[in-house]
Amino acid sequence: MSEKTELSPGRTEGSLATSCRRLIARTLTRTLALTLSGAMTASLAMTGLSSPLQAQGAKIPLVRDAETEELLRDYARPIFKAAGIDQGQVEIILVNDKDFNAFVPDARRMFINIGVIMDAQTPGEVIGVIAHESGHIAGRHLVRLREALANAQIMSVIGMVLGAGAVVAGASQGAGGIDGSGAAMALSAGSIGQRSLLAYQRGEEAAADKAALKYLEMTGQSARGMLKTFERFADQQLVASKYTDPYALSHPMARERYASLEAAAAKSKYFDKPAPPALQARHDMVRAKLIAFSSHPNAVARVYPSSDTSLPAQYARAIAAMQSRGRGALKDIDALIKQQPDNPHFHELKGQTLLESGKPREAIPSFQRALALRPDEGQFHIWLGYALVGANDKSLLPEAERVLRAGLVRDPNSGIGYSQLAIALGRQGKQAEADVATAQGLSMSGDFEGARRYAARAQKNLKPGSPAWLQADDIVAYKPPKLGR
Ligand SMILES: [Zn+2]
Predict the structure, then answer these.
(1) CA 414, CA 158: separation in Å to the nearest integer?
(2) What would the CATH number be for the domain defined by 66-153+192-266?
(3) Ligand 1 centre and the CA of 155: distance in Å?
(4) Which residue ranges in the chain fall short of pLDDT 70?
(5) Threshold 0.90, pTM exceeds
(6) Bridge partners of 361?
């Protein structure tokens, strides 16, 4: 997907000139990718921001999507509760990768590939993975990984989860600071993906299975989906490793283990209980969305042919149309809205379509509607702020600033939130505050040096002790970890 076609990372210098070159390069690359591949990346797909570590390590391409994240949180909430994991302790982070994989590098973050959802026909298949991973968290099976990470001194890098509300095809916004809204983390030596670090011990696997079954039982859910997911990993033990899902490598599944899991699962009185229809319906929509955003329109048409009149199929086709025809998709999107006027994600999609086809002002009402339906969604705030800034109307800037600040409070991992806020502030003549916002965004992307430069410049023009000055001071004082390898 995007990661392979996107810009290869530059060394992060953080100077304005470098940033601009990077922006332009990214925009161009995106355009190229759109041209070549029929628009696979436009909104969901996020790409890597560069970071000093990238030369040494792999990137994990992250992706932000309010609808998907909300569904995963709803899947996880009861499981976390059953596992005794504090609400809010574990952040679920979506990885823009179609391979089946999920991992927990520490007790605070669970990474889930979009491939997990795309492969899953039922919520239970995803919930089973979350339950198993929760078993690893609750059982504190991460010791070796944590030690290895501490050795590499890259824990803080894992902390830099970048995010963004959106990617906008650059043309419409001119040089308006579109930073590709990249989301990626750079990890030393590709460590995170390596089985040596991530592979659990046999005993830990069995313990996580047992815990997962317990959590499913406590929450009145069937383990059937988990079995379905794990069965294929059991089979993968037999094939060459290059055809194996990454998840199967880090969670070795011996046939015997699968057999004992199956026997235990079947004893549950919930074994034949299906997922609630409303949850299955949301799952089907998110799956359609992810398939549509990450696949070529021809592939979408194969999975969701026009003979399929279900809502998920309509959703997938509307997104595919948006990717290939931009505003040509509006008719399809309006048809979705007509069927579910209160679905905020349909309004979001409409706003995104307008924004990305160079009509930011027309996008404003759609994002306002989405936000009215989900007043606490940080990503909707940021979308709206983005459109308000893009409208290029001075009178809208104070509102843009307010909305973006509100969005960043709710979703501090939004790279595009900071870059748009910087523009909104700069255009209002609040240059020092704009520098602070830029510094925050750079800091989040791992460009500590660039962040410090902006923050230091801001401090000279801010009242010492003021909130903005203090934010800048935090960035100036921050000492990034050294990679001692
Ligand atoms: Zn495992």
Answers:
(1) 16
(2) 3.30.2010.10
(3) 21
(4) 1-60, 143-199, 235-245, 480-485
(5) no
(6) none
Provide the pLDDT for residue 100.
Answer: 87
Q: Which residues pair with 405 in a beta bridge?
A: none
- Residue among 347, 3, 377 at smallest CA distance from 180: 3
Instruction: Please give the distance, rounded to the nearest whole angstrom, from the Cα atom of residue 5 to the centre of ligand 1.
Output: 31
Looking at the chain, which residues constitute the CATH 1.25.40.10 domain(s)?
Answer: 277-477
Q: What is the pLDDT of residue 15?
A: 28
Where are the CATH 3.30.2010.10 domain residues in the chain? Answer: 66-153+192-266
Res 163: pLDDT: 28
Ligand 1 centroid to Cα of residue 133, in Å, is: 6
CA 98 to centroid of ligand 1, rounded, Å: 19
Distance 27 CA to ligand 1 centre (A): 39
Q: How far is the CA of 248 from the centre of ligand 1 (A)?
A: 9
CB 385, CB 404: distance < 8 Å? yes
pLDDT at position 257: 82
**pLDDT reported for residue 254:** 73
User: pLDDT value at position 241?
Assistant: 54
Neighbours of ion ligand 1 (CB under 5 A): 200, 205, 208, 251
Q: Quick one: CATH architecture of 277-477?
A: Alpha Horseshoe (1.25)
Amino acid symbol at 222: S
Cβ atoms of 270 and 239 within 8 Å: the answer is no
